[in-house]
TrEMBL record, chains A, B:
It comes from Paludibacterium paludis. SUPFAM superfamilies: PLP-dependent transferases (SSF53383). Keywords: Lyase, Pyridoxal phosphate. GO terms for molecular function: carboxy-lyase activity; pyridoxal phosphate binding. InterPro entries: GrpII_AminoAcid_Decarb, PyrdxlP-dep_de-COase, PyrdxlP-dep_Trfase, PyrdxlP-dep_Trfase_major, Pyridoxal-P_BS, TyrDC_C. This is Tyrosine decarboxylase. Its cofactor is pyridoxal 5'-phosphate.
Length: 642, 642
């Protein structure tokens, strides 16, 4: 497919190996290059050193035998992988946020892995530590943070990034309390009540830490924060997280010693975004009753729906709380899934474009074609406001199209790192040069994790160099999935029934997506039992996933989830009603089983190709429904016989 | 070098690419195999699907241009890597616990990465989740745990593994308190004081959880533990960690909300092992004064010295505390570095061999030659007792010879996982088959991290299949470094002075190693100033490390550390005295700078080759000392001129 973007020479099809390994010649050539460069590097290290393994050694029976065993194990592994792996690379896979990954990242990983750097310490990774700093800066810039004042780094994934957000929020929150206990810091918070100390804004606290550093008592005060003395049960108040949250937030409350009971779930609206009115109500109520708010989480790309929270409303709410009550709180955005989408709003100078300018450009360059209304205004505002939050989780291994495992966390104000950083004898280094600060800050002493593969940093770095984090790079790649998701939604919304014998089934989307995830369900026409509906969709999932055995021979693969009242309140009742069930069905069952497709493939962006795809998919769906009907009939026969 | 082991056909030289890429033909062939297998797999997926990228597309200017840009970025990366990477693979590198990594692990990683499985959920990694379960079982078996009753999994590294140890210990500790608060559980702990509840043994608490499960109130009680309600400042008591600890333990106390002030550092003895007498004294004192002990850490392979703690004495101490005071505590072993050494004690049936039998076999098979006294009896007992501790951290990316990042944690009793596990709608799966339990337990819901590369699991799995975790596998590989370290120590202990002009320097080891790490220092003969000694060794490190610029042209590379009183008390004073300094020097300086060599290379195990190596190394040391002398003289001239 020819690239229609006038301002960029990036061809999206040339970024990936392709569903038929179409770019195999290039891929193999570059892998070979990576390998050979490293092998020569080894051989050229001290040419005067004799080889330590000779051809005579290499032809000894036990030597050959060891190589044969190695080969045998690798063949066994290959066979295992081929049998059960999931073909993410194919447009036939529309499930989790998985797709083909960037060739450049795969090759960069392999190239770097051979040198085996460890980004825990600069000493063990002189190259890749610096690449990680660069990656952090790329991401901070994408989010609108000031590149010199902010700080970002790679984590093993969004879960650890979320932990790190809670970690800094928690330690920061206890700084004013610690100051009140230190004789040389007390004057800075004189006259404040405990409640006022617990309600200070993150920015104000960070400014106070500057003063502590000037007075030479920063470390002493720091040792009086939660870091030093532990968490005081209940003191830190509540942590507000949307119901659409990833379960890692529950783990975070446990791990960080805060306790899960201190999460206050925020209800979601009909778009599965945090309900702004209810969020405001809950926040005001907590403040009025004297409960501190440790932090608030906004989700940019909910795991199950891809919904984009109103981040701008959260920022506005905090300002309002500061003005009305003098009460502030920490704000973290969980954009593990949706973070890279912010590239779609940035021009080549990384400037966040005005809405009208953006839409005009989308149309002019056919990034978003006519008929596809993206972005919704509120989604646009949500992304724009990310620049103002305290920290952000983002996963390069999701919409960054990098292979696992590569998460990241970005902090708006890098001074916050001092509240969690550590130093150890063998990791600490003194640096005299200009890059000293960068080198120090990346050490395992400044982040939650310790050892980590420098190869991951290289993989993300290479991706960012090839695919800029703006409209001319990731914007173009991600737009393809967004457009396809919109088309997919439209087809599902208007699809004619599927006929299997005398039975008819229809398919409908749960809602119009904010992004590229389409949730949908099948329903037998005439069925008024929600449990039957759920069973049908669960069966559909089972025969369209790894659960049915080999995924390799499957025609279509997807994922699924349950939208249940204990996580979503009564929001799913809206869809259940639209789907034609009586209100009493939702009351009774309290859960709706849905199919879930993240449309990350860039291959269906061509209108004609998509039509063909949909037509095939209709046939596949019909065949799958027929398979389910047959299964049911068999089961009924067996039941009757028994 | 021919393999002299009579019972195994493993050739150690055939496991690695080699310092001159001696095994390049095989390595390249297998990498090529990995790549081609995957590319064919893609192409063969639904042969009826047409390729989505055609040769015409591929010859478009923007397509070619994108490939050229990709190549340019990869060349740039290669150049960066070659300029500053550290040649771990060479015997010229004796520093951190780094060496060449197993070919089979590197190739397995690449092979698997192309399929991009995510071990967070079985659904996203049907193959590699099972490989991770197998790896966990391998490690548990190596540690002497019951393979069906224990549980192990991969982490990003030792830091996260240590966190997980504290996490389970913390939540477990609060179970009895939670039971006392639950109306339907209260009877099980009737009559216990808070102090008694906080002193229950891990095994007794886990047995109680069985009863809670039977009563159907396990989840309710669990929500009353620290997991649900948070940490209550100070309540959990003290966490005892040797002074030789890795700094991740300080991070752990912070992250888990317990507070760093609740670490009680245990002094080390002259071998840099936890001082048993002082450990006992501190423990008894705490119990007698009514302070609960949350847990105790033993270090198997200290980061700076490779010392092996008396784990057996810790087990004995716990038994004694239970008998004398009815007070118990959790025991975690941090064997991030030394864990794999336990393979040296296991026969081919994974039986921990008797001491005499072991030594006999070492001699008979020339695993440990005459003249090398390994293992010391106390080291042997330390390893043996690991089977009795509650959990263990071990890093495949250290002495498992696997590339970064691969850590692991093992739990003796898998019931403990229920105290930290979670489930989320889109990750939870129902399994009906026999392997159901394994499948469920591996999900991101049962561990601290979330997403993680299935490729890591494959890399460790492949290593374990090729190199068994016993005397015939890892034992053989690791023994080579241990023997070489012993020889290296002997050379350092008896080395004649190095002469540079009219100045003379000697070199001496800090102590005889428990394992394969040799610490040593240079000293100018006649110098009686400890600061000068430290400056000399710091300079030596600087010109023998990445700090001097390109490591590639360096003749010898090592690492370094400071043994300072704030971390080690007065233990380093022993060496300082032996080194000929007055006691007042240690009093004044409080720190000794040392060079630090983990001898992981297997290439110097041949006595003749080692003699040649040492002779070259003497010349290198002399030249390095001359370089330092010259630097000093220049500095003195400049000072005089100024």
């Amino acid at each position: 497919m020819e690239n229609k973007n006038l301002t960029s020479n990036l061809n999206v099809d040339a970024l990936f190996l392709g569903p038929k390994s179409e770019n195999r010649v290039f891929f193999q050539e570059m892998m070979d290059y990576a390998l050979r460069e490293h092998m020569h590097w080894r051989a050229d290290f001290h040419p005067e050193d004799a080889p330590l393994v000779t051809p005579v050694d290499q032809h000894m029976p036990d030597f050959r035998n060891t190589l044969y065993r190695t080969e045998g194990i690798l063949r066994q592994l290959s066979s295992k992988l081929k049998t059960t792996s999931v073909p993410w690379f194919s447009p036939r896979y529309l499930g989790h946020m998985n797709a083909d990954t960037l060739m450049v990242s795969n090759i960069a990983y392999v190239m770097t892995m051979l040198y085996n750097p460890n980004n825990c310490a600069h000493e063990a990774s002189p190259t890749t530590t610096e690449l990680e700093v660069e990656v952090g800066r790329d991401l901070c810039t994408m989010f609108g943070y000031h590149p010199n004042k902010s700080w970002g780094h790679i984590t093993s994934g969004g879960t650890v990034a979320n932990y790190e957000g809670v970690w800094v929020a928690r330690n920061l929150k206890t700084v004013p309390l610690a100051m009140a206990q230190h004789p040389k810091a007390r004057d800075l918070v004189a006259g404040f009540s405990e409640r006022e100390l617990l309600n200070m804004s993150p920015a104000a606290i960070l400014d106070l830490t500057d003063e502590l550093k000037k007075r030479g008592i920063f470390e002493e005060v720091r040792s009086l924060t939660a870091r030093g003395v532990g968490v005081k049960k209940g003191q830190l108040g509540k942590f507000l997280v949307p119901m659409s949250k990833h379960y890692s937030w529950m783990k975070a409350m446990d791990v960080l010693g805060i306790g899960q009971e201190n999460i206050v779930p925020l209800p979601v609206d009909e778009h599965y975004r945090t309900d702004v009115a209810k969020m405001r109500e809950i926040t005001f109520r907590l403040i009025e009753e004297g409960t501190p708010i440790l932090g608030m989480v906004s989700v940019v790309g909910s795991t199950e729906e891809g919904s984009i929270d109103h981040v701008d409303e959260v920022i506005r709410l905090r300002e309002e709380c500061e003005e009305r009550y003098g009460a502030s709180f920490y704000i973290h955005v969980d954009a593990a899934y949706g973070g890279y989408v912010r590239a779609m709003f940035l021009d080549e100078e990384n400037r966040f474009m005005e809405y009208d300018e953006l839409v005009k450009r989308y149309r002019a360059e056919d990034i978003i074609p006519a008929g596809v209304a993206w972005p919704k205004r509120e989604v646009y505002e949500g992304f724009k406001a990310m620049a103002e939050v305290d920290s952000i989780t983002v996963d390069p291994h999701k919409v960054g199209y990098v292979q696992y495992a590569a998460g990241a966390v970005c902090m708006k104000d890098k001074r916050i790192v001092d509240l969690i950083s550590y130093h150890a004898a063998y990791v600490f280094e003194e640096c005299g040069d200009d890059a000293a600060e960068d080198k120090k800050v990346v050490l395992g002493a400044s982040i939650m994790e310790g050892s980590k593969a420098g190869a991951t940093a290289a993989a993300v770095w290479a991706a960012h160099r090839l695919v800029p984090l703006n409209i001319a790079g990731y914007g173009m790649v991600i737009a393809r999935g967004i457009v396809t998701a919109d088309w997919f939604h439209a087809k599902l919304a208007s699809a004619e029934p599927f006929v299997v014998g005398h039975r008819k089934f229809d398919v409908r989307p749960v809602m119009h997506p904010d992004f590229h995830m389409v949730d949908f369900t099948f329903k037998e026409i005439g069925n008024d039992c929600l449990e039957d509906h759920n069973r049908l969709n669960k069966r559909m999932y089972e025969i369209c996933s790894y659960a049915s055995g080999r995924t390799y021979t499957n025609d279509f693969l997807t994922s699924s989830t349950s939208l249940a009242s204990h996580e979503y309140g009564d929001t799913p009742a809206i869809f259940v009603r639209e789907r034609g069930f009586a209100a009493s069905e939702w009351e009774r069952v309290q859960s709706v089983y849905i199919l879930r497709s993240a449309v990350m493939t860039h291959f269906l962006r061509d209108a004609q190709r998509f039509e063909e795809y949909w037509s095939e998919l209709r046939d596949i769906f019909t065949a799958k429904l027929a398979q389910i009907v047959e299964m049911e009939e068999k089961e009924n026969e067996q039941l009757a016989a028994a």
